[in-house]
Amino acid sequence: MKKRWNVVLTVTMVASGCQAWHPVARPTADGPLPGDPQTVKVTRTSNCGEKPTLECAATRGTVVLHNPRIAGDSLIGYYDVANRERVAMHVRDVVSIESRGVDPLRTTGAALGVGAIIVAGGIVVLLLLLAGSY
């Protein structure tokens, strides 16, 4: 039973560490974003003119939104899930939207790395057992 939990824990740790940000298609209508992601990273820009105000300059950059939706011409989500701090921005100010998802390349690399460590450990134990039998 203990071995089973070790395997489950190892697989969970390997799979959870193999995520990356992937582009999401530009939203076109009201409702959830394509693929219905729970968390997105939004890169936005704002045309502030020649003398940008502090408020306008603060609207530039990247923000992570939870439970994002499109409502009319705005992208709405929560900046902080615990406090339910809502953020809304105009869709035309959005440069790109990305969501977290499993990266097959990283997952394969992590699985091969963990497998190699297990095999190397087995070889070391086998060599130690063989060395002690003489």
Write a concise synopsis of the structure shown.
37% of the residues lie in helices and 34% in strands. With 134 residues, it is of the alpha+beta class. A hairpin with a 2-residue loop joins strand 4 and strand 5.
Secondary structure elements and pairings:
Blueprint: H1 2-16, E1 19-23, E2 31-32, E3 39-44, H2 54-58, E4 61-71, E5 74-80, E6 85-90, E7 94-102, H3 104-132
Antiparallel strand pairs: 1-7, 2-4, 3-4, 3-7, 4-5, 5-6
What does this structure look like?
The chain is an alpha+beta fold and 134 residues long. The protein folds into two domains: 87 residues, no CATH class; 31 residues. Helices cover 37% and strands 34% of the residues. Strands 1, 2, 3, 4, 5, 6 and 7 form a seven-stranded antiparallel beta sheet that branches. The longest helix is centred in the last third of the chain and has 29 residues.
Question: Which structural traits does this protein have?
Answer:
7 strands; seven-stranded antiparallel β-sheet; 134 residues; 3 helices; elongated
User: How many domain units?
Assistant: 2
Largest sheet: 7 strands, antiparallel
Helix content bin: 25-40%
Number of strands: 7
Calculate the terminal CA-CA distance, rounded to whole Å. Answer: 34 Å
Tell me the radius of gyration.
Answer: 23 Å
Mean pLDDT: 77
What is the molecular shape?
elongated
Question: Count of DSSP helices?
Answer: 3
